[in-house]
Design a protein that fits this description.
Layout (H helix, E strand, L loop, with lengths): L2 E3 L2 E5 L7 E4 L13 E3 L9 E3 L1 H14 L4 H12 L11 E3 L26 H4 L10 E6 L16 E7 L13 E2 L6 E2 L2 E2 L4 H18 L1
Antiparallel strand pairs: 1-2, 2-3, 3-4, 4-5, 6-7, 7-8, 8-9, 10-11
């Protein structure tokens, strides 16, 4: 029987009597390939949770494709432009364009969870700074389990990646050239994966598509 908690499901792990699968899907029997991961303790902790790397890749793909469509992320981009990059409202962070390098060949959604995402390694999480109005820069897309203080940069383990924004608060080339941070962790001492309602719905839709392909 699936137990639902915080918009996720706790399912029996058919491969182990001592662990549970965590999933956004209630399917029984569960598809381990699409689970968030397996845990030997409830609630899960960083020590008890084994991340599913395939899920991380799917998560990063969904964020790369849809983050620029998220109303919350859009509001951060507009806040950056209106404030000249000094802060991003409820805790977002911005850093200027000249400090961020990206490969011209990379488009939205490249890179997988847990990897460097090409040139995105460290770029989305380690670089910081303030910019001036009209200069553009990058904003972080981050986990909402531990929103940073006003104007502060999120912890590296909470940052999914970054998007490039112009001086008017618009995403460069329409999608922002999403870059995977390579530092994100599904579970920290502050909790487990927390997405905005928009991105959570997009992730569930993608997982259902993947489930259908698995049969």
């Amino acid at each position: 029987m699936a137990t639902r908690t915080l918009l996720r499901y706790v399912l029996a792990d058919g491969n182990s009597l001592n662990s549970h699968l965590l999933s956004f899907l209630p399917t029984q029997p569960p598809k381990p390939q699409l689970a968030i991961g397996s845990t030997t303790a409830l609630p899960p902790t960083p020590d008890s949770l084994t991340e599913n790397h395939r899920f991380l890749s799917i998560l990063q793909s969904v964020i790369g494709i849809h983050a620029h469509e998220d109303p919350y992320v859009q509001s951060q981009a507009q806040a950056m432009a209106s404030s000249g990059g000094s802060n991003l409202g409820s805790g977002g962070a911005f850093f200027p364009q000249q400090r961020q390098k990206r490969a011209a060949t990379k488009g939205p959604g490249y890179g997988g969870g847990g990897g460097t995402g090409g040139d995105g390694a460290g770029g989305a999480s380690a670089q910081g700074g303030m910019g001036g109005a009209g200069r553009g820069g990058h904003i972080h897309v981050y986990d909402n389990r531990h929103p940073p203080d006003f104007g502060r940069i999120p912890d590296p383990e909470d940052i999914f990646g970054s998007l490039e924004v112009d001086g008017a608060g618009n995403f460069v080339d329409g999608h922002g050239h999403y870059q995977n941070s390579g530092t994100y962790r599904i579970c920290t001492r502050d909790g487990i994966l927390g997405l905005s309602p928009f991105l959570r719905q997009k992730l569930i839709e993608r997982l259902r598509q993947e489930e259908q392909m698995l049969g």
